[in-house]
Amino acid sequence: MDNIIEVLKEKHNFIIDKNNTLQERRVHLDIGRKYFTKQWILKLIDYMNFLKLNTLTLHFSENKGFRIELSNFPEIVSKKHLTKNEIKEIIQYANERNIEVMPSLDTPGHTRQILSKFPHYGQKDINGNPSKEALSITSSKTLAFIKKLYEEYCELFAGAKNFHIGGDEFMEFEKGEFIQNYMPVLNNYAKNTLGEQYSWKDSFVNYINEIAKLVYDNGFTPRVWNDGLYYGEHNEEIKQKIKMFKEIEVDFWCQMPWNPSISKLNTILDKGHKIYNLNSSYFYYVLREEMPEDGRKMNSFDKKNQYKNIYNQWTPGKFFNNDIDDKHPQIKGAAISIWCDNPEIVDENIIFEDVKKELFAFALKTLDYKINENITFEELYCEI
């Protein structure tokens, strides 16, 4: 049997209810921090094909690496990286199996690798010192520079429907360093370029909109993370006044409970964005910097045997600290993520074994989120 749908039908007489199927069923792979071989990625695609997962995000730019060949500024690229020809092979292999490969170039945060080669493009503070991790959103030269990167990868990934442009963790907005050293610069930029009533939030949104429009004009739907959007919208803070580019879709990964200004899911829904469930408490596998205190390994999900929680507890409307109707029309998909914060602690083959069960559970629940009411995970998995 070629795929999990056939297994369900032939061995369990179970037909997937397409009314319970999510449109996008995705794996998000961090190849920025950690180098993965082409062969490993093709192996992942084979498993995704069996599981009827239909989208693979290649997150190739990070603080700890930049891992796809780049012609315009080759010095940015890490020594171990995928060539453009390898990427084309991966895309073709995936497309032949009805899997889209979505590029992910995350800015203006998560850019330490880029800024290590072009430090003058870092966001300047009140003393004129550039950040080592955050790209400048107040410099026209920086914007022109980063647009060249996006344009080159738009060409490489032409034919894909979506382009993830990041937008997460630009800076820690709630911390004193940002409030004292960077916020005044961004406020001044907003007032001088946009108008007296605008604030630092509009400086940030203005940058996101610029990149979103670029990828949209190149044929992609822009995707961003949730945590920088509509910051402080439900508090008594000054709200952003610039409207987000209307075609932006949102990966909702975390409410960040330590920061009450992170906008709630309903705020993003009310603005009309399509959303994707990346609930980090279920779907984040991480190569961690520190050993968990509950006996988990440093290469792990947030809980032991997470596949059981995914299969038995999660539904499409169960977002991080936000629950909505499973049939909400703006929910367009979900993704399970492989993050490599501490890239060298295990090799790629261990990662594959670590995530197999969770990928299996995730695939079943995104194909038919009520499947656990009819068949146990153990019944299915032991047969494969």
TrEMBL record:
<feature type="domain" description="Glycoside hydrolase family 20 catalytic">
    <location>
        <begin position="25"/>
        <end position="341"/>
    </location>
</feature>
<dbReference type="InterPro" id="IPR015883">
    <property type="entry name" value="Glyco_hydro_20_cat"/>
</dbReference>
<keyword id="KW-0378">Hydrolase</keyword>
<dbReference type="InterPro" id="IPR017853">
    <property type="entry name" value="GH"/>
</dbReference>
<dbReference type="Pfam" id="PF00728">
    <property type="entry name" value="Glyco_hydro_20"/>
</dbReference>
<dbReference type="InterPro" id="IPR052764">
    <property type="entry name" value="GH20_Enzymes"/>
</dbReference>
<dbReference type="GO" id="GO:0005975">
    <property type="term" value="P:carbohydrate metabolic process"/>
</dbReference>
<dbReference type="GO" id="GO:0004563">
    <property type="term" value="F:beta-N-acetylhexosaminidase activity"/>
</dbReference>
<protein>
    <recommendedName>
        <fullName>Glycoside hydrolase family 20 catalytic domain-containing protein</fullName>
    </recommendedName>
</protein>
<dbReference type="InterPro" id="IPR025705">
    <property type="entry name" value="Beta_hexosaminidase_sua/sub"/>
</dbReference>
<feature type="active site" description="Proton donor">
    <location>
        <position position="169"/>
    </location>
</feature>
<comment type="similarity">
    <text>Belongs to the glycosyl hydrolase 20 family.</text>
</comment>
